[in-house]
Amino acid sequence: MSEKLTFEKLKQLANDQDLDLSTMQIKTIPVRDLAKLPRITHLDLSNNQIVEIPAEFCSKLKQLKYLDLSRNQIGFLPDNFGELSNLQKLNLHSNMIEELPLSFSKLTKLKWLNMKDNQLDDSLTSTAARFENCEFAAPRVVEFVKAQEALHKKILQNQKVTLEKTDAAKKAVQDQEKAVKKKKKKAKKSGQQENLKSESEEDHANGITR
């Protein structure tokens, strides 16, 4: 059974800028209490039972330089993971991660990265997991995600252009249909007036007054 991590307990465990919370059967990261310890730049959460990294972890712990999340059960990283922009060393070894969020491209200070023994897709595996040298893997993975981000933006831009063209084409068709309806209505009205004129002339010829 995991020990309840109160703020007082965290303060006791903190050693200057280091906080070791490894092997404590943690399931939920105590983000709010951790945020009260702004001096902590090295955080070890390895060998726990963590399944999810909450988004507020990234937004409230931006000072982190070293983060060890190895040997947990993490399936994905939050979309705002890139807010941890001061990270220099990141250990994600032995989790269940399949892909990285596009914001990972913001980790430009990252110098060391271990992503071995995850469930990465083939393209990411060829970029990260095959490197024994974690220092070599770090910049390669960041550049890989940057390329993915650029591709994603290009796809979105193309979709936007296509949508705009589709909307313009729809509007052109609608305008054409309106013009045809207006023309038919005008022709119908003109035809009715011609009929009334003919009837009037016929009645006049027959000496009938309406």
From TrEMBL:
Taxonomic lineage is:
Eukaryota, Metazoa, Ecdysozoa, Nematoda, Chromadorea
> Which residue stretches does the UniProt record annotate as biased composition, category Basic and acidic residues?
196-210
- Recorded protein name is Leucine-rich repeat-containing protein 59
Q: Where is the composition biased (Basic residues)?
A: 180-189
Q: Which SUPFAM superfamilies match?
A: L domain-like (SSF52058)
- Any keyword rRNA-binding? no
Task: Give the Pfam families listed for this entry.
Answer: LRR_8
Q: Where is this region: Disordered?
A: 173-210
Organism of derivation: Acrobeloides nanus
Classification via InterPro entries: Leu-rich_rpt, Leu-rich_rpt_typical-subtyp, LRR_dom_sf, LRR_domain-containing
- One GO cellular component, as annotated: cytoplasm
What's the superkingdom here?
Eukaryota
Fetch the PROSITE patterns from UniProt.
Answer: LRR
- Which keywords does this chain's UniProt record carry? Leucine-rich repeat, Repeat
